[in-house]
Amino acid sequence: MAKLYFRYGAMGSSKSANILMVRYNYEERGQYAVLLKPRTDNRDGEHEIQSRIGLAAPAEYVDDFMKKISELWDTREAEYLYHGKKVNAILVDEAQFLSPEEVDTLSDIVDFYEIPVLCYGLRTDFLNHLFPGSRRLMEIADVIELYLQNDQYSVFKFYTGQDALDCIRDKKIDLAILDVMLPDIDGFQILKKIREKYTFPVIMLTAKTEYMDKITGLTLGADDYMPKPFNPLELVARVKAQIRRYTQYNEVGKDAGDVIDVGGLFLNRTSHECIYNEVPLTLTPIEFDILWLLCENRGKVISSEELFHKVWKEECYKNSNNTVMVHIRHLREKLSAPTGNSDFIKTVWGVGYKVEE
Known about the structure:
- This protein folds into three domains: 127 residues, P-loop containing nucleotide triphosphate hydrolases (Rossmann fold); 103 residues, Rossmann fold; 100 residues, Orthogonal Bundle (Arc Repressor Mutant, subunit A), CATH 1.10.10.
- 39% of the residues lie in helices and 18% in strands.
- The strands form six sheets. A five-stranded parallel sheet has the order 1-9-8-2-5, sandwiched between helices. It has a four-stranded antiparallel sheet with strand order 13-14-15-16, sandwiched between helices. A three-stranded parallel sheet has the order 10-11-12, with helices on both faces.
- Helix 6 runs parallel beside helix 7.
- The two termini are 38 Å apart.
């Protein structure tokens, strides 16, 4: 399914170089990506886009392209040609200068012609005000709200940090998803303000990939951190995990020693509940005790003999290792169901089994 993407960054963050490299990648695969720019962007001449590192490619104005395809394309066609070539993608540089109407037309191209549109540009001007085109792109391209609402979450969405802080003050919030790059207040500063009064989970989103940004966010009190671009379904899964963890750990009278939450696995010894990657698993009492023991000693190798002694509460006998091995195999089969991956419990050959820290 084609989508409209908005890749925004700061001034000098190689946006033009990135879009030219994306175009090159399409060409390498034998595909055609139309390169466009708003009419207000004439710094490289009328028919070219250049980057600071010396890359360049021919480009056309967005409005000219839209006028031509309105005369050429019909939604009943199997494929859509431009300059005699099938169009596989549309790339737009300096997208902050698009008008909201042009953004809507690009969105229509995605919906009607099933052609992906990738827009690159700034989000705010030097006064930290959103460009009209950027605001409209964010409204259309930001699907986080839709995915969360589909999972029955009530969502409050804001484009400025101050509006978000006002909402947190006036509403009961269970979790915050916070973008580092906001027009009025640095995302890290907002996180600090949240942590002065509130303990609900915070997931940080950022286009930045520097390791220090992740460390800064986690040090200031973020519970999770996702670099862009990301899969919205993964974000929803992380939201569920954070809310579940926060709710479970804050239930009145709950003994923290009865709960283990590690690597996407949640165990509650009191209720005999096991959830892995948001999927409830049905375990036998023996399977639950084996998994609990391994997770309780995560990072440590537990021998078959020790597992048998502590779980079955009997001394080892000749076939006890086989008994443990069969139960480990059944556990792996159940744990692999949510992800298709069966390596949550690792075998250390000749020694025993372990769960990574």
